[in-house]
Queue: 4 jobs
Job 1
Amino acid sequence: MSVYAVIPAAGTGERFGAPVPKPLVELCGRPVLAHTLAVFEQCAGIDGIILVVHPRYHQEYSALVARYGFSRVTAVVDGGATRSASVRNALRALPAQASCVIVHDSVRPLVTPELISQGLALAAVDRAAIAAVPVKPSLKLVDPQTRLVRETLDRSLVWDIQTPQVFERNLLERAHAQDFVADDDSALVEKCGVPVRVYMGDYKNIKITTAEDLLVARAFMEAAVKEPHVSARLV
């Protein structure tokens, strides 16, 4: 099985409020993306990485790859107008021998090799596997107009979806060939009628969306350096 990772980093991050896209924002001395790519670099099961970037910042991302010596990044391709379009561009750049694709958010720098490996093992059997964690808060379905509660959801049935998301290549390509609109690659596969296996992710595997998330990620990383045994138990 030949495994390639697709790392979408094509957004501009305007809502974040930084002068550069979120993947290029500094976190503990390195760009967020550098932390993410470093994890995939050390994964023995990864044969290559396709990095998808905003055309405006193509040079900056290529320079980052060269600066940190990420030898498994086999291509830096321009993204599209949407995340799905960006992933499709990456799929076109895959070599013929690639049989399995991992899609992972560029701004989830706290992913671990174990999470990636677990997804690969499950996808080899089930064709599609995604990391997720059970939600902690109580959840209510609220009418968008009246702001009245419609329903209190059973939180034992609700999971917070993360990446990595791992798919058989042919399956992911077929899902992206359909005229579907979805928030993530798993949803596209689900719309094709294919069951998706959910496996336990990590509460530390956060997606950096706001400045507050950056502070949380920094705290996790600093704790891992100072007290690795304590940090491993944090959720």
Note: The first helix runs from residue 32 to 41.
Job 2
Amino acid sequence: MKRIVLNITFATLLLTGLVACKEKGGDATTGEAQEVAEATATATDYQVNTEISQIVWLGQKPTGKHHGTVQLASGTLAVSEGTIEAGKFTIDMNSITDLDLEGEMKENLEAHLKGTVAGKEGDFFDVTKYPVASFELTGISKKEGKSMVAGNLTIKEKTHAIEFPATILTEDTMITLSSEPFQIDRTKWDVNYGSKTIFGDLGDKFINDMIELTIKVVANKS
């Protein structure tokens, strides 16, 4: 197995806007969308295995926390001589799942996050109007001794650049990209429900703006 540490000047990333945990993971740098990386003519496409690739989310509020997953709908990495040159992923927002509740409580939380409850469509992700999110790589770089992945994350038709630390492993015809836990500010993508920053009169009935994400992408050579 050949280990490749990737650094990417990341311009965004996808997904879930709930509640976020501030104690774990570093904050992802968020900024204006950047120019998307382009692959060379010699690059080979690796198709994302959507069955085992996923995003794990962790959110928090004063009264507790929740965690779950979001699945990728599709994705491609362009690889040349063991180096990822470009890539794009589509996230299936209808796949938002909570893993710490059961029964009706689980169903209610998932429906609220997806926006499938009448009158609460816009609280979080409004998946009927915005069924997918996306992430496009913008570069690879080294930062403070860590490999950084950079790209543009689009949620609810709003795009921001983000950057997070990740490790890339290659084995035969497979590549695995695994991020460290990192946080994004959901309000940057208009996921504002329960935000103390947006609504100042919530007292202790707020949901943290920051949501923690951990990404695992497994891709196979076409």
Note: Helices lie at 103-114.
Job 3
Amino acid sequence: MDIILKKNVDGLGEVNDMVSVKSGYGRNYLIPTGSAILATVSAKKIHEENLRQRSHKIEKVRKEAKVAAEKLAAITVKIGAKVGENGKIFGSVTNLQVADAIKALGYAVERKNITIINEPIKQIGTYEAKVKFQKGVDTTISFEVIEE
């Protein structure tokens, strides 16, 4: 069964992707929840026209995201944390703190799009994280955990 996704579905695709799924999954879950529509001939034509119209907008946004990714990759983000003896952090640093530090620098990145490579972080030091700006645009940034 071919469907057109109306929402991002983990492990399946993103908005406006045309994918093939088993008929039960599409008919019983994706279509009733509003995550997808059936890819009929008329829906495919409408989908193609919408994609054609959006292509210029998407390309412009992708270029801006690449520029932001390059600028962010060149910067070392600093994250303050409360530290005890021997450089150990109380708790751990998560993608939420990384997202807040990036947002303070003026970049709009959601925390769900940040994946810390060396989890869990419980010591002061320099670490890396993957940041996904948009579909096809991601970068690896370095961040430093420092004492507050």
Note: The first helix runs from residue 23 to 30.
Job 4
Amino acid sequence: MAEEVILRFDNVSFEYLYKKPILDEASFCVRKGAKITLMGQNGAGKSTLFNLIQGDPKPKTGKISITNNATIGAAMQTIAREDFNLTLEKYFAKSFEITPANLKSQISKVMEAVNLIIPTDKKVGDLSGGQKARLLLAYALIKNPDILLLDEPTNNLDPTGIDHLITFLIMYDKTVIVISHDADFLNCFTEGVIYLDIFTKKIETYVGDYFSVVEEISKRVEREIKKNVQLEKQIQDRKDKVNFFANKGGKMRKLAQKLRNETEEMEENKVDVRREDKTIRNFIIPAQDVVGNIVTIKSVKIIKDHQPIIKKVDKALLKNMHMLISGPNGIGKSTLLRSLVENKNEETKILDGVCVGYYSQDFANLNFDDTVFDSLKSILAEGVDEQTMRSVAAGFLITGDLMGHKISHLSEGQKGLLSFARLVLMKPGLLILDEPTNHINFRHIPVIAKALNEYKGAMILISHMPEFAEKIKMNEYLDLGKI
């Protein structure tokens, strides 16, 4: 008996008013109980495809079928800012048209499933990045959906959180579709790949674990390139003959026309070779020249058993000093960085006159109503002109067609690259980076690590990716879990 298909796309096309088409007659199906990776370049439309599965927006043409009205739960990349003032209980209540009488019991069950133990009267906005990541998953699970959609679920999770999520997904007996840039995470549980190509707008499906599929795609690209090289040689040979016979006149001219037609057919048969994500250009973040203690930290507030505790420390950063802040999810790492940026606490001070480049894990420092152009222009350091600004932006794959878009219309990956372009243009004396690899395509990460390692100013970094942090020379460490 054939396995039941739970989700099907039949010749689905979709486009936004402000964008080029996302899908062009895309077709695929997902069987019940499958664990699938959704793969594609930054900005290809992976998150949009998730929205289409949920029914909003509707496709331009084609049909999306959900078998037997299967229910859908989605854990997207970020929590909406308008929900930050809600308590956890009120946040979960939003999932229901009519609040169930046993809501607290259901909350407790899904919170336990995602290993998140915090009071339900706590505000959503007060959670750490890792806690918010777990909350998003719990919110998706609260109605026990038949199809679970996860968009970058490992962002902000510490290694313990990622291990717990992998175990949960392996044991979960329903259909799961995941978007993630974490290859090791994906390889642990997925059994197939849906590939969305940003250039053709088509979808391809592959069976096998994540690493096997990536290798299969790479080999296919090699075959396509070789085939095109052979065709190019044949086409050039035909063109040379066309030019020769065309100048002879009479029957030779007719032969030239015949060869010309055959050449055009050969060119049409060339394989449209898959063009993977371009990698961002190597870049340098220029550092403001600052003398003295750029950062002074005399005490930090940590959270243990949901209670704040003040701990005395003695840390100071000069030029060329890089500090890594570590500790489990929820202990107060991001809170410490926000306290520094706000510069209102005498115990955590930034030297007056220092230009601060802040990379917020949720892009809270970006105005989502700004256009990309205005966002870049607003932070230009003295002496940086518009031409330089556009050149820097292009190095981060932010090209002219994106300049007029509102930041809210960018993918999360594009917001991350925009944030790095802003850092280059600011020439900061201090970098404060909170999970700067979140949402960033893995191809770009070595380039970013190299630039941060070569940065000459002071830097404070939080990162849940050990392999990333290890590429950056650190000379100061602050483990909030061990003070």
Note: The chain is about 35% helix and 20% strand.
